[in-house]
Amino acid sequence: MGIANALFLGPFGFAAVAFLVTYLTMPWLIGALRRAGITGRDLHKPRAPSIPTMGGVGIYAGFAVAMTIAPIFQLDYRLLFAIFLSGTLAVLAGILDDLFSLEKAALVALTFAVSVPVVTFEAGSTFVSLTPIGPADFGLFFWVLVPFAFAFLMNGVNIYAGFNGLEAGLGIVSSISLGICALIYGSLESAVALLALAGGLLAFLKWNWFPAKLFIGGSGTFLLGAVLASAIIAGSIKVAGVIALSPYFINFLLRATDRFDWSVGKTLQNGKVTSGKRNALWALFMFRRGRTERSVVLRCLAVQIVFAIAAVAYAYFRVYIIGA
After folding, report:
1. What are the extents of the domains in the chain?
2. Which of its termini does the chain have fewer beta carbons within 10 Å around, N or C?
3. Is the four-CA dihedral 99, 102, 108, 114 of positive or negative sign?
4. What is the model's pLDDT at position 278?
């Protein structure tokens, strides 16, 4: 009975709880952040207005409530706790960055530390399905690789940012698609975490979509990266995760060509944005040409959706076609 309830509440209830809590939290959070002076400049708007940042705290509020009630439905509390604790540490690391603008080396060190709960709880299987070779057991080496996966994903999400609605939109597509993959594989704990994250992001998007009234901040990008990493590792969706998150890897490689220098392009007098470099995935869509911010974001989301569909198709093929 508990598993049946979890199957229903996974795709619907947990996402709905996270959505509701985040939605109710946001108006208060925006006011509190503005009063505290925790703001950032929206560089793609005339006169670069000051916008409250650290919106990831509100997303975490919804995620935390949903994850707290999840063990009621007889899911594996060990896996849930590992994902939840990693997400909590990620938010704290992001808050530190939002408040004190940490150096790159410190950020990388923190992202390694966030992986500790997943490693110590051994949350997940060391087997990886490598088609057509079949499952391969990485053993102890798998847990050695986990911190690097966290560091890549958390920083990868953090550097694929800078436009209204981009981070949240990409996160919604990624978490929903991987949540579906987790349900296909029967990894209910991962599905709950991913769909709870999607619910919080969806509520946040109301205030983050163009023109944004709230930025996600490091607290949000780190939360997103940590939950994606821990849910992929704790579930049986490692290959699907690699497929769904390929745009982040592509963006990472493009950013590496410019030594990860922070950039969001240039805003023209007509309000459009352009870039003289191909130093990010979004930069490809506005290289030496002006586009609206909304147009750039929608193109990035379209790319993410293609890979998300491919991940779900892979999971469906593995489970229902070849039965692996």
Report:
1. 2-242
2. N
3. negative
4. 94
